[in-house]
Amino acid sequence: MPALTVPLIAPSILSADCARFGEEIKAVDEQGADWIHLDVMDGHFVPNMTFGPVIVKALRPYSRLFFDVHLMIEPVDLFIEPFAKAGADQILFHIEAGPHAHRTLQTIKSFGIKAGIVLCPSTPAQAISEILDLVDTILVMTVNPGFGGQQFLESQLSKINQIRNMVDATGRDIRISVDGGITAKTAPLVINAGADVLVAGTSIYGQKDYRQAMNALRGQDVK
Ligand SMILES: O=C(CO)[C@@H](O)[C@H](O)COP(=O)(O)O
Ligand SMILES: [Fe+2]
Q: Which residues carry out catalysis (predicted)?
């Protein structure tokens, strides 16, 4: 069997100690994280609320790692500039959050940062077929967005695989990220299906040893 790709690991601070977000970001940075994933929720697009650009700006000095900002908000466009100026390296938004994804991607790119599109579990891969030329990352939700600690949806594996085929056909370097219920058990399934970025909250911040937790997701189960 061929060896699995070593994925990038993006700890989601949603499961960190939120009274100590800065130190929690610093800790995973020092222990080998590749990206930092920041979940922004508005209590409208999803039934939960987290934080806005002011907090992202306050957290920026704690790490130089790539800030992967996952917007679960509607509307999106109004908030691109504040998040870009707060220090986002990539802004991801949901294809379900409005009819003008193409324009939104252009707006994100106009700030000189990366742009990503997110699909909820009920959204087919085909929904993003006409915007692949503008995306840097495709994020497949493997739970319904809004909360950490949910059960991984195995039904999403075939969609990840379909998106892998779509991406390979473009010949472009597009990352395929997955988010929700990613553990050492589900990681090989999504990597095998074509994912190369693993977002994980509970399975990193819920563990004592962050380095060991991230290595387990990489399939490198050594201390
Ligand atoms: O976007 C979200 C939830 O909507 C995520 O980024 C969660 O934070 C993932 O948490 P776990 O499922 O890994 O606990
Ligand atoms: Fe997320």
A: 39, 179
Q: What is the CA radius of gyration of the chain?
A: 16
Write down all domains in the chain, each with its CATH number in brackets. 8-217 (3.20.20.70)
Tokens encoding 125 = 């891969």
Contacts of 92 (CB under 8 A, 6+ apart): 68, 69, 70, 71, 115, 116, 117, 118, 137, 139
Check if the beta carbon of residue 160 is closer than 8 Å to that of residue 176: yes
Q: Do 181 and 142 meet the contact criterion of CB atoms below 8 Å apart?
A: yes
pTM above 0.90, yes or no: yes
In angstroms, rounded to a whole number, what is the distance separating the alpha carbons of residues 3 and 149?
Answer: 29
Q: Whole-angstrom Cα distance, residue 85 to residue 108?
A: 11
Ligand 1, atom nearest to 150 Cα: 12
CA of 37 to the centre of ligand 2 (A): 7
ipTM value for the complex? 0.99
137 beta partners: 116, 175
Q: Are 152 and 200 in contact (CB under 8 A)?
A: no
Q: In angstroms, what CA-CA distances link 125 with 18, 33, 151, 157, 162? A: 33, 28, 21, 11, 7
| pLDDT, tens only, 127-180 | 999 999 999 999 999 999 999 999 999 999 999 999 999 999 999 999 999 999
Is the CB of residue 83 less than 8 Å from the CB of residue 71? yes
N-terminal to C-terminal alpha carbon distance within the chain:
25
> Could you confirm whether 196 is annotated as catalytic?
no
